[in-house]
Structure formats: C-alpha cells, structure tokens
Input
Amino acid sequence: MELLKNLAKTINMEFNNHMLTQFEQYYEMLISWNKKINLTSITNKKEIQLIHFFDSLTIYNEDCFNPVNGLKMADVGSGAGFPGIPLKLAFPSINLTLIESVTKKTNFLEHLIDRLNLNNITILNERIEHIATNTKYRETFDCVVSRGLAKLPTLAELTLPLLKLGGYSLCYKKGNINKEIKQADYPIKLLGGKLEKPYLINLDIFPDSRKIIKINKKSHSPEKYPRKAGIPQKRPLI
Output
C-alpha cells in the first residue's frame, strides 16, 4: 500500500501501519471474492489503490468533508464498500451505514467487516427507496455519500430524505456534469436541499476531471419522496 500512503499525503492524510495493513487485507479479500462474484472490473493492485481506495478518500477537505467524532454517515449503493469502507478505515470514529440491495455484495461486506474487526457499522440489504421512507432511518444521518450510483437528479431524490436538517450529501462525479447540475436544480430544491459550488479534485494523477457535489439539507423533504423502487431512475424529477 505504498502508493496509497503517498497519495494520501497529497490531501494531508497520514496513515499508520495498522491502517495500511487493513487496506492490504481489504485488497486481498476484494480480489479473492471477485473470483466468485462481480465486485470490480479493476484488479491491478496499483489501480485499486488509486481508483477505488484513494478516490474514495478525496472528499477529505475542511470545506467539503471534515469528519467529526461520531459522524453518522450512510453510503448509498455501497457495492464492494466504496467509498464507505475506505473512509471508515481512515476515520474509525465514523458511525457508518452501508446500503446495498444486492445480497451477494452484502455477504462480502459482512465478511470484510468481520475480518477487519470494524465497529459501529450497519449493513442494510434493501433498496434505498424503502430505507429512505422508513422512519427509523429517514432524516437521521449527518452525511450521505454516493459513488457511481446515478445522475444528480436521481441522487437528490434518493439521498436527501435520509439527511437530518443541517446534514449534507456528497456525490462523487467525473467528466463534464454541467447538464446534470442544471437538471438537478429543481429536485434539489424540492427535496429541501441547497447546492454548493462543486468541489474540484485537482490532482494530476487522475486522467479525467473529478468533482464532489455537495448538497446541504436546509428543509424537510416532502413525505411522498422518494417514490417507489425504480421510479427515481426511470422518471427523474427534471
């Protein structure tokens, strides 16, 4: 994990040996399970350190994401654990909920969490549309993260109902997303959010333009949102 260690320094993060060992174990389990179920198309060790591990950590910035002790975070569409698990390894005090509807992937996450001996993590094997309407989870999170899940209009409907007032959603994006941002203006306001200026990941090591879209929760989300499973993707609020 030498590459990850050096990359982390570029965003003012320092990893101790225990953290690096955990990331090494994460890599080994990811590769092993990927032979049985489809977790990632990327298997080269250096690429995993860059494209999965380090990319997950690039939200770390006091203007974008400053993880206070006990931060209650949800990772929506967690898949193989990105970005939630790398963030948990870097900031152990996070209280993390991983939301993933595919059972094979949650089986991997359960195994990973057990082997890494991680605490304060909940796995929800259910669609986000159902979780976001459950009063146990609705408007209870300080922060919601999503990476490679959907376009911004859909993400607004899926993530904002989970946030408490004063919370924020962080969406990992790359490439030209000006159209997405414009289309998301209406659903963000409708769901009680306010869009901040996109945070640019200005690092030469990435071949493409990467941004973090931060949406602050300013007012309560209408109870009828999110709509039924699949509808936010099929008929986004634009």
